[in-house]
Specification:
Layout lengths: L27 H4 L3 H12 L11 H14 L1 H8 L8 H18 L19 H16 L6 H14 L13 H10 L2 E4 L10 H22 L6 E10 L7 E4 L15 E9 L4 E9 L17 E5 L6 H23 L7 E5 L8 H9 L2 E5 L5 H4 L1 H32 L14 H19 L2 H13 L2 H9 L5
Helix pairs in contact: 3-4, 3-5, 4-5, 6-7, 7-13, 9-16, 10-11, 13-14, 13-15
């Protein structure tokens, strides 16, 4: 008869750092390890973790150090021991020594005593780090964006502008280095929220099924090849493209970003095909005369440049898009593929008012273009360009502005050696930003023509589910 009928087996209910009790950890029979090895593992996991090191603020260090200096170390321990349970004599001695040194140096009453610096020493000279930190603090106080691009640009701008720092031009700022910088400045990453209305799962599925059905119906009826299936999307393109994410003070209730409300922009219309080709851009500027346009030499051939008082797209600009960009591409592609002039092509775009006028639809029909509208409030889910291309485009604009930012900062430092780095301000007049913006747009267009750029375009079609839907309608056996 088993004794377990009369006695309960003893269990080890100690919690472990693995989140389980010792009893719940894998046994020797389950792991194939010996009992001794299993016992050692269990003991190590059940060991009480080392408690977090106690830290003291500069004000607390000053209070403890002052009392120890006036009344002695033992009296200080007796007075503050209950308030700070982990306060030891060695810590009191260090705080007293630091306090006395500050009194001898400054004189009078000292209200703050900085603790000893911890961690590895900086790879950069302290003066350079101080300049960078002071500039970033001023930038953030003025509402500027602080992110990796800005930190790197400011750092190398200061290095390039001061001859004594040129030996650090090969320094590579890592993520860990930037995180340590943010921690010293008490900065944390803050994200912007979206204003798009929420979409339920049921509404999403129903709308996307209908959307894909409309596309597949047109493609199958007219036997449209991938090269003649294209989409266009209008996006505002700012001269000062700044990130909506920034490093800001922890627990700050309001995070203002200078430049985020800058209205100086153009309307950029981007198009791409299902085969991964990028089409020339349409760029609409604000102005009343051709003088508002940038130098055409800065942009690739085939781009459509226009202007109006508001830089917004409308019926006239939409008709110009059809005649100056879409139709030349369609005719050249039909000729290359050996298709007749009557071959239909498919155009996907949103339900913008300028797209749905009678004249626009009549013009598209005369060009043998069939239009399928992207569902309302679904462009961020159903537009291939919104899913991948636009994000990459904004990234090029941000990088170009960061490069200009860095070079301008370096030039300011070189030309004004005695100027406080915190007072440096970058020129953001349109005469400076417009050519810079044009170069960024040109670089993005060249990138989307590369193999990597084509993959980003095709990934947008995949993300919208259009590529798979068309493949299944052409070949029903596709999984």
């Amino acid at each position: 008869m088993s004794l377990l009928n009369y006695f309960k087996r003893r269990t080890d209910s100690r919690q472990t750092i693995a989140g389980l009790t010792v009893e719940q950890l894998p046994s020797s029979a389950e792991t194939g390890l010996s009992n001794d090895v299993t016992s050692k593992i269990n003991e190590c996991l059940a060991a009480v973790p080392v408690s977090k090191r106690t830290t003291y603020t500069p004000a607390q260090r000053a209070i403890i150090g002052r009392y120890a200096s006036e009344h002695g170390n033992k009296a200080c321990l007796d007075k503050y021991g209950s308030e700070y349970p982990k306060l030891c004599q060695a810590s009191v001695i260090r705080m007293k020594r630091s306090y006395d040194e500050m009194v001898d140096k400054q004189g009078g009453v000292v209200n703050e005593v900085q603790g000893p610096k911890r961690g590895r020493p900086s790879l950069l000279p302290q003066n350079l780090v101080d300049d960078l930190e002071r500039w970033l603090v001023k930038l953030r106080e003025a509402g500027g964006t602080v992110n990796s691009h800005i930190v790197n640009s400011a750092l190398f701008g200061i290095i390039s502008g001061k001859p004594e720092y040129t030996q650090y031009l090969k320094f590579e700022p890592t993520r860990g280095w930037r995180n340590a910088l943010y921690k010293r400045l008490n900065l944390t990453r803050r994200r912007a929220t979206t204003s798009r209305p929420p979409v339920s799962v049921a509404a999403y599925k129903e709308t996307m099924i209908r959307y894909h059905h409309n596309i597949c119906s047109v493609v199958k009826t007219h036997a449209i090849p991938d090269e003649l299936i294209f989409t266009f999307d209008q996006t505002p393109s700012k001269y000062m493209e700044v990130s909506k994410n920034t490093m800001a003070r922890k627990n700050s209730t309001r995070v203002a970003v200078t430049g985020s409300d800058d209205k100086r922009a153009i309307t950029l219309t981007v198009g791409a095909t299902l085969s991964g080709d990028i089409l020339p851009y349409q760029m609409i500027y604000t102005g009343k005369t051709p003088r508002c346009l940038p130098d055409k030499a800065l942009l690739p051939d085939g781009f459509s440049l226009s202007f109006n008082p508001s830089h917004w797209s409308n019926e006239v600009e939409t008709k110009r898009l059809l005649t100056e960009i879409i139709n030349p591409y369609v005719q050249a592609t039909k000729l290359r593929l050996g298709k007749p002039s009557s071959q239909k092509s498919l155009l996907l775009w949103d339900d913008f008012k300028g797209h749905g006028t009678a004249e626009v639809r009549q013009l598209a029909s005369s060009l043998n273009i069939v239009i399928v509208e992207i569902p309302k409030n679904f462009t961020h889910l159903a537009s291939p360009l919104d899913l991948t291309v636009n994000k990459s485009l904004k990234s090029f604009e941000q990088k170009e502005f960061s490069t200009y930012f860095s070079s301008s900062l370096a030039e300011l430092v070189v030309n004004n050696p005695t100027m406080d780095i915190a007072d440096a301000k970058v020129d953001t007049r349109l005469s400076k930003l417009k050519p810079l913006h044009a170069r960024a747009i040109s670089k993005s267009y060249g990138f989307f023509k590369t193999e990597e750029g084509r993959k980003i375009i095709i990934n947008g079609w995949k993300g919208a589910g259009i590529l798979r839907a068309i493949q299944e309608c052409r070949n029903p056996s596709v999984d």
